[in-house]
Specification:
The protein is built from nine helices and two strands, in the order ββααααααααα. It is mostly helical. α1 packs antiparallel against α8.
Length: 334
């Protein structure tokens, strides 16, 4: 074990043979950060396909697909193929999570990057276990719902890594305190909307398999309840967009994106509710929920300026000060 002295004089352990790892945020880390976000979102799509095609027990055991086979067999048909395909993608998700932690090893002093990457890896492993448990308990809706909530958290964490890789460490609060407070209230409405949506799906017809139980709640009533925080979220987002554009606040572009996602999500929700919850629209609704979480996370992160923005602001202020005429200075010296 060798030592690597920092500017503070403290030594960080450096494992032999890791000199080829990035010592700064470079293209490799950027690619892995985006790959983590994309794969964590895609797995929601394929997981939704498993559920919406009734393939939840296409592989009736876990971690094997059957008692005698690791992979799906031709006799298992399309359901086995769909479920096993989702399991294969989960392996890719895990590989990306491991690779991201390894790539950030020499940058572990950047806790804003390394800590969320480690949590992503830990939750990804936990997700695999939860997925296995859901098969073991015959797709109990509470376990399946937990599976989705964990995915939403993973998408948020992956968004944090992507944002910090692109924008750098967080800086000072770049918006008024009341604006930040309203933004955090908006993010709470996103969380409530997602959780109520999970309960609504758990009461509906898409159980993942004909033998799977439902949570016993009134599906039609829950669809109405689910819309309440969603409409409140849309209204609050609209207000934030107007204020951010009028005052040229940093989150304005992310807020516009958030408003766009909400409009599409509301439209899909209304159409699916009025047409008997067609599987394709339900699947789109699930993926949009994760995109909503990602964009909301970016909005919250953009409340604080990065060091690059702080530096530009300081430089601009210094230039303006240099150009301003000093009181009492002779005109010939100005």
């Amino acid at each position: 074990m060798l030592g690597n002295r920092k500017a503070t004089g403290r030594r960080l352990p450096t494992l032999a043979g890791v000199s080829w790892l990035p010592d700064r945020v470079d293209l490799r880390i950027r690619i892995l950060a985006w790959a983590a976000l994309v794969t964590q979102t895609l797995i929601v799509g394929t997981g939704g396909a498993v559920r919406l095609t009734g393939s939840g027990l296409g592989c009736p055991t876990w971690p094997l697909c059957t008692d005698a086979s690791l992979v799906a067999t031709p006799e298992m048909g399309v359901h086995g193929a769909v479920e096993f395909g989702n399991r294969l993608l989960s392996i890719v998700v895990g590989i990306v999570a491991v690779a991201l932690v390894i790539a950030l090893w020499r940058l572990r002093a950047r806790r804003d990057l390394f800590v969320p990457a480690v949590v992503i890896l830990a939750l990804t492993v936990l997700q695999g276990l939860v997925g296995g448990i859901s098969v073991r308990v015959r797709l109990d809706p509470s376990v399946v719902g937990l599976h989705f909530v964990a995915s939403a958290v993973l998408v948020a964490l992956a968004t944090v890594v992507v944002y910090r890789v692109v924008r750098g460490p967080r800086g000072a609060l770049a918006v008024p305190g009341w604006f930040a407070g309203v933004t955090h209230l908006t993010s709470a409405l996103v969380a409530i909307t997602v959780v109520v949506g999970v309960l609504t799906t758990g009461s509906g017809p898409h159980a993942g398999d004909d033998v799977a139980a439902r949570n016993g709640l009134d599906s039609e009533l829950l669809q109405h309840i689910h819309s309440w925080p969603a409409y409140a979220l849309f209204g609050l987002t609209f207000v934030l967009v107007v204020i951010a554009l009028a005052r040229r606040l940093p989150p304005r572009w992310f807020l516009l994106a958030l408003l766009g996602v909400e409009l599409v999500q509301i439209a899909v929700g209304l159409v699916q509710a009025r047409n008997g919850l067609p599987p394709l629209l339900v699947g789109i609704h699930m993926v949009l929920a994760c995109i909503l979480v990602a964009v909301m996370t970016a909005v919250v992160l953009s409340l604080r300026s990065g060091p690059a923005a702080d530096g530009l602001r300081t430089a601009a202020e210094g230039t303006a000060a240099d150009r301003a005429p000093r009181r009492g200075t002779p005109a010939s010296d100005r």
